[in-house]
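Field reference: sequence -> structure
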Amino acid sequence: MTATWKIELIPVPVTDVDRAKAFYERIGFNADHDYKVHDGLRFVQLTPPGSACSIVLGEGITEKTPGTQEIQIVVADAHAARKQLLEVDVEASDVDAQPWGNFVHFRDPDGNKWSLQALESRPNG
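Structure field:
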């Protein structure tokens, strides 16, 4: 029997933790934790609505260069997700309709790339 593996936390490299936290809260992420563990380590965990996987940003979290992370999120409706982003003044692409789903792309203030994907059905739930 194969053990269950679940992705739980993805680091997002940023230059300004407070600016990034405010951006993600503005687009609907919940701020789960914001702890300064010690000098040089601040842990900020944010979760998209309805997601079992969160992002983490902060000081001392990752050595990745800000603006280099790419993450994809599944949404129910790409058009509605795009509208939600535009309503809070986030620049978002038009909906890109592909045979395997509809996509909307945007970037956070540091240039990290996000893709929102809407599928009619998912083979594994």
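Note: The chain has a mean pLDDT of 94.
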